Amino acid sequence: MKPKRPVSVFRYLNDQPYLGANRVTLYNSVKGSLGFVQRLGLLKELPVHHGCVNCICWSDNGDLLLSGSDDQRLVITNAHTLKGVTDYKTSHRANIFSAKFLPNSGDHNIVSCSGDGIILFTDLTRTSDIHTNQFNCHTGTTYDVTTVPGEPYTFLSCGEDSTVRCFDLRIKESCYRMDCTEDVLISCQRAVTALTVNGTAPHELAIGSSDSTVRIFDRRNLGTKSSGSLHSITRQHFHQLFGGRVFMSREVLG
């Protein structure tokens, strides 16, 4: 039996015009190429913070990196020149745990959350208004914020108070009511520590909670008081729904 020729990403790149190697073949050759992995190296270290960096994300076009840290600063770095673009001291009073660019905002609008429970909406073109664009709705730590692809005014958050909240900046740009329920989308029985929106199907929302469970919801079946829809999931509903099968969600047990 003839020995199998070693897989090489460079061979596939060379042969692609002649053999018509597709993207999957190229991907698999990279994944299994020891030589390719051994050629990887550190491009540059960016000492842009003075504390633990807890979150980092790319801009939509891949030109910028946004990072948040224990130093309560938001830093934007050009990913091509590797130079700092913005270094902004926020009004967060605790470690920044999550920060995201709002889509289709020219990379000027950012939402971030921290251990003090505060969510900030930051417009880098009018930083004088930052201290008034706060959402103090969560009780305890706010663990994560996420945006919805293609929607520059909508973002979601989750926290220690067991809630997932959905905010629309066209309705309000701040909220100072403690334990406000106007924007509650889901109220669980356990702390919600992570959430993400499906990039290819934005109506799908996945959350992770402290009971070792991942749950997937269809946002089309949910709403908030502030949006005029009362189809949110309360703690009582949550207990009833997950006691059996429901059409709007799926559970993945850890």
Major sheet: size, sense and barrel closure? 4 strands, antiparallel
Percentage of residues assigned to helices? 10-25%
User: How many runs of DSSP E, i.e. beta strands?
Assistant: 16
| Mean of pLDDT | 84
Amino- and carboxy-terminal Cα gap = 44 Å
Over all CA atoms, what is the radius of gyration? 22 Å
Name the strands of the widest sheet in spatial order: 1-2-3-4
- Which consecutive residue ranges, at least 5 long each, have pLDDT under 50? 243-249
Shape, per Cα inertia axes = globular
Name a few traits of the molecule.
mainly beta; 4-stranded antiparallel beta sheet; 254 residues; 4 helices
What is shown here, in short?
The protein is mainly β and 254 residues long. 13% of the residues lie in helices and 36% in strands.
Structural write-up:
By secondary structure, this protein is mainly β. 13% of the residues lie in helices and 36% in strands. The strands form 4 sheets. A 4-stranded antiparallel β-sheet has the order 1-2-3-4, with no helix packed on it. Strand 9 and strand 10 form a beta hairpin. It is globular, with a radius of gyration of 22 Å.
Task: Give the topology.
Elements: H1 9-19, H2 23-31, H3 34-39, E1 53-58, E2 64-69, E3 73-78, E4 84-89, E5 96-101, E6 109-114, E7 119-123, E8 134-135, E9 142-148, E10 151-159, E11 163-168, E12 184-187, E13 192-197, E14 204-209, E15 213-218, H4 235-241, E16 249-253
Antiparallel strand pairs: 1-2, 2-3, 3-4, 5-6, 6-7, 7-8, 9-10, 10-11, 11-12, 13-14, 14-15, 15-16
